[in-house]
Amino acid sequence: MVEEIASLDASLQIIVVDDASSDGTGVIADDLSARNPRVQVIHRTERGLGTAYLAGFRKAIAGGGTALLTMDCDFSHDPAVIPELLTALESADVVIGSRYVPGGQIEGWPVHRKLLSRVANRFVHALFDIPAEDCTSGYRLYRKEVVLGIEWENVRSTGYSFLVESLYWASRQDGARLVEVPITFRDRTRGKSKLGWREAVHGARNLIQLWLKTGRR
Fold first, then answer.
1. Of 4, 7, 10, 25, which sits most exposed with the smallest number of CB within 10 A?
2. Computed from CA positions of residues 158, 85, 94, 67, in that sequence, does the dihedral angle turn out positive or negative?
3. CB of 130 within 8 A of CB of 23?
4. pTM across the whole model
């Protein structure tokens, strides 16, 4: 993944956030960083999707990043789409790699995963007026100003609901423009997702609390 991203554009910098992986991921990332100065690694002892994103955001902004891309590292998110996301950002503040706009699709997911994703997005739209079809996609490109404009101390989610909550606060910024680019999401061929019904229920609780707190759609 790192090699493919690096081959797309010489201006792209890559940050790998490793939460004390027990499978040797951190060592591999350090080796990549030693061989390529465009690759940086953050090693953490804590775990959590939300705090991992924030650690990456902070490092990217401190290093002068003007646009911040988030994506999975298992090729579910095709790095070949990155140039399209960058082009779309010219007229947007947040670009979402979307499975649920015309041209977008999912390959390799079992029926229950597709159902869970669809239900999650419908649940989000029932609570919040976010102008996007795919509110749970982690394949996103943000302008730096949008990230800096989010009051992260108000974001309580740490798991997968972090994706929705961060998009909610981004969309509430004055004049924020959200654009979706269709992607083909392919299920990973190795490993296992941490997202299940228990995580989904926990995320739903967080979003209901956000809805109650804000008192608005």
1. 10
2. positive
3. no
4. 0.91
Q: Give the tokens for residue 65.
A: 């990043």
Place of tokens 């302008």: 143
CA–CA dist 128, 123 (Å, integer): 9
pLDDT digits (tens, 9 = 90+) for 50-107: 999 999 999 999 999 999 999 998 999 999 999 999 999 999 999 999 999 999 999 9
Enumerate domains of the chain plus CATH numbers: 1-47 (no CATH), 66-214 (3.90.550.10)
Banded pLDDT at 194 (limits 50, 70, 90): low
